[in-house]
């Protein structure tokens, strides 16, 4: 089928590489510089020291016109508003299935006004690192979870799930809320802690004091987010720290490179929930402002 | 009068330089290396690019025998136990006036069993930087507050106060509890925040997000420590941040140089108070463990 990928970041480029195997793919990017580079040189995909150079269809997002049956939105949450604006202007959106891969849950309310056929949401568990505008490294095998958020015509999602790609599995999840919550709590604990402390993920388990905070902070978050199976979720969280122990989290990398972080999508949402439920959130509040302050410092350099 | 200064750190060396003007001073140090260097080369005292080299009497603390009328203890709080052990062994301590210059308030309970004539406590507001074992720089003019903790024979303190030294004032405070609390709250806010964030003191006022935490954290501390005039204390705290805006706090420097910090003397004490009063202390707990964890990381390098 025809698939449009919106976003030329690490996940967008990863999707472009893998989905090309079975589908007709086009990547939509924001910058002319990136489009020109990809058009001229193709995409460089690297995994375990093996480098593949391939041709990928690429266009500017400003020229997008909803021609694809499935549209995967792989931009950061804070870039979503401009994408949604263009979606709303399109009179062909009702024929499309949209799949949103953002972190957090704050964006869900923005999706309600879209008149697409089906709206799906997903979470990615891949490790990927974009080192140039047209060069992505697949650093960690994972999967993409997806779930239907609205609509019941799921033929495009069914097709995606029915045509497995080696080393790039999709997994269907019945409960979108549970799926996003699980990812949110992982992001909300690991990202801010590692970013404030400037440590690799594994240190949250190894350092006694950091581990104490890790546990206390999880307690606060799981209460605010009303996680049903706290023990299981906590084991999942520990497991991810262990598997990614040598990684620097995405938020830490964002701060390192003076980019905006996803703190609003992650802890901003948690703080809204806490306010709504009138719950105390001292840890969340603390880490929210520590990261916002660090973002602000970084932006000045 | 005869004054013994215990501790060859930055404050100990600063005291040695200034008190020599009117008194017979001897510095007691722990390391033979430092003693030998000071005995051979003298003390280098530097202020505003002016360097003074002078002879200072120096001995090993292990040879100390309570010969001085006034003994000023200028070691870190975590080094106090070994000093107190030697004090307890001395049968001449009852003739001495002791002045303790430690941060925090956790050490007060340790002082109760000493049978000295008078026990005074003090807080220092000087900026000083020891760059070699026998070289100290006076980086910021300040004063030493002192107050009587126990005993009423204050002749030695009166003599100290009666003989003013240029650029090195002593100030008498009626209420030792109030005096130590004021210093504790300044240390408890500025030190952990700047050390976790790796920023200069002034950034706690300039960065909106850090400033928000600065205020919230002060609220928690002033409740736990039962500060009487919260507004005045807060203005004092802001004032110190402003005056020292270009400084890196002592705790930040300790972490930078992989030394132990004074976190137990400062926030350890606050957490004990909170527990005693059954008060929530999420910020204090959080910063306590962030610093302890960072100390642990640093210690491994």
Automatic annotation (TrEMBL), chains A, B:
Entry keyword annotation includes GTP-binding: no
SUPFAM superfamilies for the chain: 6-phosphogluconate dehydrogenase C-terminal domain-like, NAD(P)-binding Rossmann-fold domains
Keyword Oxidoreductase among record annotations: yes
All residue ranges annotated as the Ketopantoate reductase C-terminal domain in the record: 175-295
Keywords for the protein's UniProt record, in alphabetical order: NADP, Oxidoreductase, Pantothenate biosynthesis
Coiled coil ranges: none
Gene Ontology CC terms: cytoplasm
Catalysis: reaction(s): (R)-pantoate + NADP(+) = 2-dehydropantoate + NADPH + H(+)
Enzyme class, broadest EC rank: oxidoreductase
Stretch forming the signal peptide: none
Family matches, as Pfam families: ApbA (PF02558), ApbA_C (PF08546)
Example of a GO MF term: NADP binding
Pathway terms, separated by semicolons: Cofactor biosynthesis; (R)-pantothenate biosynthesis; (R)-pantoate from 3-methyl-2-oxobutanoate: step 2/2
Every Ketopantoate reductase N-terminal domain range: 3-149
GO biological process, one term: pantothenate biosynthetic process
PANTHER family per the UniProt record, alphabetical: 2-DEHYDROPANTOATE 2-REDUCTASE, 2-DEHYDROPANTOATE 2-REDUCTASE-RELATED
Role of this protein: Catalyzes the NADPH-dependent reduction of ketopantoate into pantoic acid.
Protein name: 2-dehydropantoate 2-reductase
